[in-house]
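Service request form, structural biology core

Requester: graduate student, group of Dr. S.
Request type: structure prediction, single chain
Budget code: on file
Notes: please return the result as structure tokens.

Sequence provided:
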Amino acid sequence: MTYEVTVEPTGDVIEVEEGQTILDAAQRQGVWLPFACGHGTCGTCKITVTEGDVDVGEASSFALMDIERDEGVVLACCAIPESDLTIEADVDVDPDFLGHPVQDYQGVVTDIRDLSPTIKGLVLQLDDDIAFQAGQYVNLHIPGVEGTRAFSIASKPSEHRALELHVRLVPGGAATTYIHEQLAVGDTLKVSGPYGQFFTRKSDARDVIFIAGGSGLSSPQSMILDLLEAGDPRQIYLFQGARNVSELYHRELFEQLAQQHANFFYIPALNEPEDSDDWQGFQGFVHEAAQDYFDNKFNGYKAYLCGPPPMIDAAVTALIQGRLFERDIHMERFVTAADGANEQTRSALFKRI
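Core staff response, request fulfilled:
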């Protein structure tokens, strides 16, 4: 049995299977609804049911209050239709968003390598082509681990079947521990995607600043490779932060790209270099490297930030102090169990501060 859900004010109609959430059905049919956690705890995906019956599902009382439930408000990530529905959603789709439908894949592991002491590079060969925008992510089903885990795609969209992912080992994290210690070449993983609203606004002609830390390099890598492959004429700057040289992975790749493309500039920064590193580059945090490079003047740029929350917060503060408007700062936070959330739970929504 399926139900029809009409989304207002756009007029989109989605088919929802029995037992399927509204959000899952929308994503798989390329219809954008705002969301973040995907697990009923943040409240970002609130919609109002104006016609029909719905099961609110496992929405937390914190994210969805009783008074809201009485008014027909539900969370799209939890709500399951029990009849045809009409819903109202705060749909603000960016014109650059392509809305590729979410699909399921089987991915065979073709390569696993150490990128740094704490980060592994993983390549999956999918059983079908995947269409995605650079900056988006996929969910992996890890054997023996409940639920899924989200990982940004590091490869460029033109590589339709080979997905590169960067996986940081989270202490005590079941999924990342499995990938680092048990996963082997030839193994198969279930993959779904693409997800997320983190992507480059290609219609905007302003020069681009990327600031990345840790395995947060994955999304900017995909975005930069995509822009350079397309011959994008904008000036593109990548600031990559790490603790020391051993953690500064893919440095050679970006140095080579900087030599090959006159409009690409690579500025790495180390905040705790080892004596043996013989580091001659910028020493300090990555947002400080950006401030130093641009002399604290960021107006007229678009900025994309990807990495752990402390890095994001510091970079946002620096950019705003440097006269960059909030609407021109886009970000993706990498939140893990160590940060007090579910392991590798990441914002699927490309939030503006």
